[in-house]
Design goal:
five-stranded mixed sheet; alpha+beta; 92 residues
């Protein structure tokens, strides 16, 4: 299993980014969550087959129409022992 834990900066709030990521992650059958941060960034943790994680990482870097991804920060996985929700969810 692979894991992806990232923070995404740019114009990523108010443009449907979380919904876009949720749909991509569900299409890829990944577990995990995505949420807005007060900093204006998006944070997400996903788990699944490495090929699907790579595909989600590409989708994150591109974003939905209307978004502008400036930086994708890969983070150490502080959630590695956490059971991630499946199907992939949006946290509030």
């Amino acid at each position: 299993m692979g894991r992806l834990h990232v923070r995404v900066a740019g114009r990523v709030q108010g443009v449907g980014f979380r919904w876009f990521i949720r749909e991509e992650a569900r299409r890829l059958r990944l577990a995990g969550w995505v949420r807005n941060l007060v900093s204006g960034e998006i944070e997400l943790v996903a788990e699944g087959p490495p090929e699907a994680i790579d595909e989600l990482a590409k989708a994150v870097a591109k974003g939905p129409p209307g978004a502008r991804v400036e930086v994708v920060h890969r983070l150490p996985d502080e959630h590695e022992t956490e059971q991630l929700p499946s199907p992939f969810t949006i946290e509030r």
